[in-house]
Amino acid sequence: MQPSPAPTISVLMALYNGAALVGETIATLQAQTFDDWELIVVDDRSTDDGVAVLKTIDDARIRIIEQPVNQGVVRARNTAFAHARGRYLAALDHDDLCHPERFARQVAYLDAHPDTVLLGTAANILDEGAVLPPTLAPITTPSVIEWLLKIENPLVWSSVMIRADAARRLDIFMRPELICAEDYDLYHRIAQFGTIARLDEELMTYRRTRGSLSQRRVDELRACSVSVLADAHRDHLGEEAEDVASLLVHYVMGQLPVPDRATLRRLGDALVRLQAHFIETRRPDAASRKLLRWETARRWARVGRTGLRTGSLGLIATASVRPDHLGLGYAGLDELILSRIVGGARNVLRRTG
Question: Which of 212, 229, 263 is the last residue of a domain?
Fold first, then answer.
């Protein structure tokens, strides 16, 4: 029998105990307006009926690979990648949902932009039955995405489509030692081969589950993310790279409250220097410069609001260390004052509770 022609898209899915949700996810693949795809599901020795659910779905485009032993989600994705035949690789976790035009929009963009090696989309969030709006930057350009990669993870893994020939140039598709930040690491490594971009249309729904790997292993996620960012900034920052990466991961990416004014000042100084270096070396166009400065200001304002609301920072201290050009982002002075009032009340409750 002659092998079937290679599809345009290979969808990579790792499955572990996903019997309750994987059927719904695959139904959103079957509803795609672009139907030239294959789905490679690697079951990582599930203990539920996930494989049985898959085998009830009558679709020749689905290929099931059963791991002999449990090896973890990263190695399962690497196995799927090794079996992929498509020109493009679509990431998809077993519990997330594709919108019908996802593949059509991404293939059209990648076909028209041969320099783009990885393309994400905007995504909303499904949280305990409620659909919430996206939390990432609403408007982007490739330069904005490139900048945001320097300070956070601006892409949802299940929204990503990758040019397969670029992925095959990597020494390894995903690095298992960076579990929880393996996607973030991949974005940084594949960027050496071309542009990373994002469609700002919501073409994915990310399902937020309380027991997910990233929710259960937050400390490991932060440590791996620090490693990725430190490597990204080492050429520019040298010995400071680790400290700056830790500040970014904990207070920009992780949204933890900054403990004191000195830490806030160090974070502000790092953001200013990194942004200035990016603009000087990458020379984004005027529209991108405006957007990335705005997005940086938004994150600075969020850091300040978090500190004020938790009571770890005072209003005067927050305002006094604010770098001039970062502004207040979306937060006006009245909103910061309200945050300080909330933080003050919480401090009173802590003392009297």
Answer: 212
Is 218 within the bounds of a domain?
A: no
- For 191-243, the pLDDT digits (tens) are 999 999 999 999 999 998 765 555 558 889 999 999 999 999 999 999 999 99
Query: What is the pTM for the complete model shown?
Result: 0.90
| Same domain, yes or no: 24 and 141 | yes
Give me 162's structure tokens: 């990758």
Number of domains in the chain: 2
Q: Which CATH number fits the domain that encloses residue 16?
A: 3.90.550.10
